[in-house]
Amino acid sequence: MRLPFIPREEKFFELFVDDANNVLAGARLLEEFFRSYDQRERLASQLRDLERKGDAMSHDIGQKLEHTFVTPFDREDIHQLISRLDDVLDFIEEVADTCILYKIDAPTQTAHDQTEIIVKQCEEIVRALEKLKGFKEIGVHWIEIHRLENDGDRIARRAIADLFTNGNDPVEIIKWKDLYSLLEDSIDACEDVANVIERIVVKHA
Q: How confident is the model over 91-112, as pLDDT tens digits?
């Protein structure tokens, strides 16, 4: 007896894009956080709301995964994708909270530059996930995310070296080293998302 063809659940692709757009909104809000630093308490609160929204979206995708018979690709990769997207937003939210907890007086140009890279990476993630359903023409996006990560590495290394070369206040050095490292963690987390997307596409090539 021939079993009827069971179509894969396509709704996941829309959910991935929604999740990535929420992460992008968080990245853009962090950019605004540093640009409008006098409004940092309000903007940090909005970031916490976005982070909770992201958690709820990941939970919904996980619930759907449990009740879906045929998924668009491996369940493990779906879990990895939503988990890595979560990581990006968690780090972004932690950056804003750390600025407030450490009583950072004003953002540096390095913080602005690192945040700009995060925004650009998140934009590429959204573009990649918008194309994921066809598993084609996505490589250009993960290549750009990797390139941006390399730029971020150089910026962070230079900034931390400058702290130890030219910094006078040990407490300020520690604060900014932590903050630059958190921003770099955010950039690295975006690259982790790109790696998951690349792995998914390679499996379906």
A: 999 999 999 999 999 999 999 9
b vs e for 53-64, b when ≥16 Cβ sit within 10 Å of the residue's Cβ? Answer: ebeebbeebeee
Q: How many domains does the chain have?
A: 1
Query: Is the Cα dihedral 141, 151, 192, 13 positive or negative?
Result: negative
Q: Which of 17-31, 57-71, 129-143, 182-196 has the lowest mean pLDDT?
A: 57-71
Say if residues 114 and 26 touch (Cβ distance below 8 Å): no
The pTM assigned to this predicted structure is 0.94
**Per-residue CA distances from 176 to 99, 133, 167 (Å):** 9, 41, 10
User: What ranges in the chain are assigned the alpha helix state H?
Assistant: 11-35, 40-66, 75-101, 109-130, 139-166, 170-204
Say if 6 falls within a structural domain.
no
On whether residue 110 sits in a domain, the answer given is yes
Calpha distance 6→12 (Å, rounded): 16
| Nearest in space to 133 (alpha carbons), one of 184, 80, 57, 200 | 200
Q: What is the CATH number of the domain that holds 136?
A: 1.20.58.220
